[in-house]
Specification:
- The longest helix is centred in the C-terminal third of the chain and has 15 residues.
- The protein is about 25% helix and about 20% strand.
- Helix 1 packs across helix 8 and helix 10 runs antiparallel to helix 11.
- The strands form four sheets. A ten-stranded mixed β-sheet has the order 5-4-3-6-7-10-8-17-18-16, sandwiched between helices. A five-stranded antiparallel β-sheet has the order 12-11-14-15-19.
- It contains eleven helices and 19 strands.
- With about 425 residues, it is of the alpha/beta class.
């Protein structure tokens, strides 16, 4: 995509929004010479294990404050971000520090399909109101929010309507885009909403400056497939050369890993579950990142910590664009009327809203194939109980799946039920 000044000259990389035409037209900007020389500062609310902040750090930013209430996550933050002030509860945070970027991956418990789906005003997800209150008395250059795809559809888009309505009330221009973590090169099919807002800048130049389009199917290998062993009635979470979305827990809140089918493996080693260190790598973290949580909780909690995190590569891409905004050609956008279904990308302000045709792939990084990330020799086989339960549900369902997959599940169960040789 490209855009030009009214005099025909190309837009510079570091530019600040002055005005823009709505519908079809040209974005008019003016240079912002200070952007390239100043380090942007960050306050990370609902910080979790620091996926956003780690990516922003890689993009050259400096975190000044972290806020997280859960003790296992606090233990990770204290170990991995030493020396950075850590506040324990957004409800008691008196004010935001003077920073350039405020990030908030507020709880998705009431928004996700694996959660309670109570909506944006549920006990957990409703915590976002404290962010809104704090922003009323602060003036950050950027606000960044991340959450699950389901927030676009839940209660006919009530969550998104509340969110954009509050930002419009505060005088922000906002934009959001659904992205797939696989664009960063990790073999995890993870779709998340990235929301950016500003009173002074153009969020379109951050979220819509890049669009690589989804990679070709031929880029994926056919030697391994990921699936949810907890499913089998209405879905599989089927993913070629990748795992499906790592979750904070099942519908009952129980931490659980997805599974994978290794096609050419021998019976007993064909249906496997990754280790927590594999999950950390699939989220872009160094292996062992969540080990400090063991001082506060049992090992299973690490799965919830990783499943709730933001993929580091996604926040690094976002950080690069916050530091160095690009350009956005608005000639293909369409008017978005209140009450319409929320699209995968949009932007707006108090005056009007626009739907934007963007893929889920801003960039295309070198892909790490699933079997190059997960050490199958170290991965544990899916248990007999889990395998037979899943296979039984699958056979009773009307889902479509390769017959070879069903055969592999049957052989795996037979092998797991066989006595172990002396």
């Amino acid at each position: 995509m490209s855009c030009t000044h009214l005099d025909g000259s190309a837009l510079g990389a570091q530019e600040k929004l002055c005005s823009h035409k709505k519908g079809r037209g040209i974005i008019v900007t003016m240079p912002n010479p200070d952007a390239a020389t100043r380090t942007l500062t960050v306050a990370g609310l609902f910080a979790g294990i620091g996926g956003v902040e780690l990516g922003l750090k890689a993009a050259g930013m400096q975190t000044k404050l972290l806020c997280e209430w859960w003790e296992p996550a606090q233990a990770v933050l204290q170990q991995q971000f030493p020396g950075i002030p850590l506040h324990d509860d957004i409800q008691t945070l008196p004010a935001l520090p003077d920073v350039d970027v405020v990030t908030a991956g507020f709880p998705c418990t009431d928004l996700s399909q694996a959660g309670r789906t109570a909506g944006i005003h549920g006990e957990a997800s409703g915590m976002v109101k404290h962010l809104i209150k704090l922003l009323g008395d602060a003036s950050p250059q950027w606000v960044v929010i991340e959450n699950v795809r389901n927030m676009l559809a839940l209660d006919r888009g009530t969550a998104m309507e509340y969110l954009v309505g509050e930002f419009e009330r505060l005088g922000y221009t906002w934009a959001y885009r659904l992205v797939d973590s696989r664009f960063t090169g990790v073999p995890q099919r993870r779709q998340r909403v990235i929301f950016v807002a500003s009173r002074t800048e153009n969020p379109c130049s951050v979220l819509f400056a890049d669009d690589a389009g989804e990679r070709a199917e031929s880029d994926y290998r056919e030697d391994a497939f990921g699936f949810y062993w907890t499913e089998g009635n209405t879905g599989l979470g089927w993913a070629q050369d990748a795992l499906p979305t790592l979750k904070g827990g099942s519908g009952l809140g129980i931490p659980s890993a997805p599974a994978m089918w290794v096609r050419e493996a021998e019976p007993g080693r064909a249906i496997l579950t990754p280790r927590i260190e594999d999950a950390e790598a699939l989220q872009g973290f160094p292996r062992g990142w969540t080990e400090p949580a063991l001082s506060k909780a049992k090992p299973g909690v690490r799965w919830k910590l990783v499943g709730n995190a933001v993929t580091v590569g996604v926040s690094e891409w976002l950080g690069r664009r916050l530091v160095d905004p690009g350009t956005y050609d608005d000639s293909s956008q369409e008017l978005l009327v209140k009450g319409m279904r929320w699209p995968t990308a949009a932007w707006g302000s108090a005056s009007q809203r626009w739907s934007v045709p963007m893929s889920l792939w801003p960039e295309t990084h070198r892909y790490q194939h699933l079997l190059d990330v997960i050490d199958v020799d170290e991965a544990a086989p899916l248990s007999l109980r889990a395998t037979t339960g899943f296979h039984g549900r699958l056979l009773r369902s009307r889902l479509r799946y390769p017959q070879a997959f069903s055969d592999a599940l049957k052989l795996h169960a037979e092998q797991m039920s066989s006595p172990v040789p002396a």
